[in-house]
Amino acid sequence: MHSSKKSGFSLLEILVVIGILAVLLAILLPALARVGVTSRVSVAKAQMGTIVMGLAKYQEELRSYPPDNSPTSNGSEVIASYLTRRISVGSSSYGPYVQSGTLYDKDGNGHSEYLTPFTKPYYCVRLVDQKNVERGFLVVDAGPDGKLGGTLDPVNGFVQDGSGFDKDNIYGPSYLSQ
Ligand SMILES: [Ca+2]
Ligand SMILES: [Ca+2]
User: Fold this and answer.
1) How close is the Cα of 82 to the center of ligand 2, in Å?
2) What's the chain's Rg over C-alpha atoms?
3) Domain count of the chain?
4) In this predicted structure, what is the pLDDT of residue 8?
């Protein structure tokens, strides 16, 4: 008697396999997304360390820190302009203090930016004491959400605004909250 059994997979078998794959993907994708964020946070911390070391060297050689970010120049432009280029002062030249990496003019204002690993701008402020004497330089990576969740003040450093957006922020290691 001729067998009616077909070779290969039946539609039901294929549907079962697709169903299993869909369940596996649903389980794995959020975990993979978390791994992506976690590894970028590690990269962000390493990049912050490089920037702070660069700033320390800059301050040592030029006896001052770069300017703060401003409404017209974000922190990433300050870093790109002062740490990733060779700077001439009189007959001497200094730097670069940070290997340039990828510089990109994200906001299109004609000035390159040294972006965070989350492709967001850095924030920075030159810290001074009550007598306006320079005492450090604070750089903040606003984290995966790109939101600072506060303000940067030359005397008080980072001041939370209560929004909670600061929870994922990454601060330069030289920053001491007080
Ligand atoms: Ca720009
Ligand atoms: Ca944040």
Assistant:
1) 24
2) 25
3) 1
4) 81
